[in-house]
Design goal:
Blueprint (H helix, E strand, L loop, with lengths): L6 H10 L17 E3 L8 H10 L10 H6 L9 H9 L3 H4 L6 E9 L10 E12 L6 E12 L5 E12 L24 H5 L12 E3 L6 H12 L4 E6 L4 E2 L2 H10 L10 H4 L11 H13 L4 E12 L8 E12 L7 E11 L5 E12 L5
Parallel strand pairs: 6-7
Antiparallel strand pairs: 1-3, 2-5, 2-9, 3-4, 4-5, 7-10, 8-10, 9-12, 10-11, 11-12
Helix pairs in contact: 2-8
């Protein structure tokens, strides 16, 4: 009788066996196609609190009943960062499990004032565009619109557009490409690294004066912008003191808890021969940590949305993520009278001051007092 567990026998069996593949190739996507993903997770208080605690998003309105009620919530709701990650997680198996760089995300929108624990997600994606990579014959580029819906009511909870490089089933000829400083190929502006390496020669084109707001309320951001506008070469920009070192919980456990099956985050053997050489962090974890640092220095009332999100380089276990913020605009008119709308540009960077994420975010910020 064959001993299938004999090492030599089993090695031969593996060589002969067909591997049942997971995920999709670039050729599998057709523009206009809508993909219904397997049932999304049931959003739980434990899941939300695990996400927010590990990413240092400690807004008490998402933890404590009295703080939630002061914010106008019935109970502590699901944090929008967790909602966003839980919406993307179920889409990974069908869209990007085979690998490929997460190039960026745009038009992130949260459509409800609050989403509560117990909500069951339904997730669907529509293929918006497919195109070839100009430098990588083994990859194509796909953009999807993904929608997170309340499975019971059909109400939209969270939507965004995402762009990834996706492995091809059959390589094609390309016009070539140059390697960047990190040993990764740029792609005519398609790779986030190409943007981060631009204009490195010569002096940086930065304002002489970088101003920090004097406080966490809307008025502080508005006043800082007014001060900067009166100076010929100034901007409102500042860094945050906290840092968070990536560990196995943030790199592997958090994405798996959102049903994100991408092997990049948990399969060390599969990643051994990749450019990173090891498992890498889920972009939404890196993003949430950077925003958590920023939110600790602002009186955030409600998240509105985000755009222009880009992921510039790998984050691996042992990297420490810090945050840097630039204030772009402050508008006192939108929303209730006790808040104002502020638009920020956030940059996450590591212990070597290497940018790894950037994006523009809009949030409602509390006022010191109602106007």
């Amino acid at each position: 009788m064959t001993d299938w567990t004999d090492p030599e026998t089993f090695s031969v069996a593996l060589d002969r066996a067909t591997t049942r593949e997971k995920g999709s190739h670039f050729e599998d996507f057709a523009e206009g196609e809508t993909i219904e993903h397997d049932p999304g997770p049931r959003l739980t208080r434990h899941g939300a609190e695990q996400w927010t605690s590990q990413t240092l998003n400690h807004d008490p309105a998402y933890w404590r009943t009295e703080a939630a009620e002061e914010r106008g919530f019935d109970e502590p709701p699901i944090h929008p960062d967790y909602l966003l990650a839980a919406t993307m997680g179920p889409s990974v198996e069908a869209l990007s499990e085979k690998g490929g760089y997460f190039l960026g995300r745009d038009d992130v929108r949260f459509h409800q004032d609050a989403v509560y624990p117990g909500t069951e997600l339904r997730v669907e994606s529509t293929v918006l565009a497919t195109r070839s990579s100009s430098s990588r014959p083994n990859y194509g580029i796909v953009t999807w619109e993904t929608r997170g819906l309340d499975a019971q009511t059909g109400d939209e909870l969270c939507t965004y557009e995402r762009t990834n490089m996706i492995p091809r089933r059959e390589p094609i000829e390309t016009d070539g490409g140059e390697m960047d400083d990190g040993g990764r190929m740029t792609d005519g502006g398609e790779m986030a690294d190409a943007d981060s390496n631009a204009d490195r020669d010569g002096d940086p084109d930065l304002p002489d004066g970088l101003l920090a707001p004097d406080g966490e309320y809307f008025e502080a951001f508005d006043e800082a912008l007014e001060t900067a506008a009166e100076r010929p070469d100034a901007a409102v920009a500042y860094s945050h003191e906290r840092g968070r070192t990536m560990d196995v919980v943030t790199v592997a456990e958090l994405p798996l808890a959102t049903l994100n099956t991408a092997r990049q985050h948990h399969n060390a053997a599969a990643m051994a021969e990749s450019p990173s050489g090891e498992i890498v962090a889920y972009g939404d974890v890196t993003r949430s940590i950077a925003l958590g640092h920023a939110r600790s220095d602002e009186a955030t009332w409600h998240e509105v949305g985000a755009t222009g999100e880009r992921f510039h380089d790998f984050v691996t276990v042992g990297d420490t993520i810090y945050g840097f913020t630039r204030v772009l605009d402050a508008d006192g008119d939108p929303g209730p009278s006790h808040v104002g709308e502020v638009t920020f540009e956030h940059v996450a960077f590591d212990q070597d001051q290497r940018p790894v994420y950037s994006g523009t975010r809009t949030a409602l910020i509390e006022r010191r007092s109602e106007p």
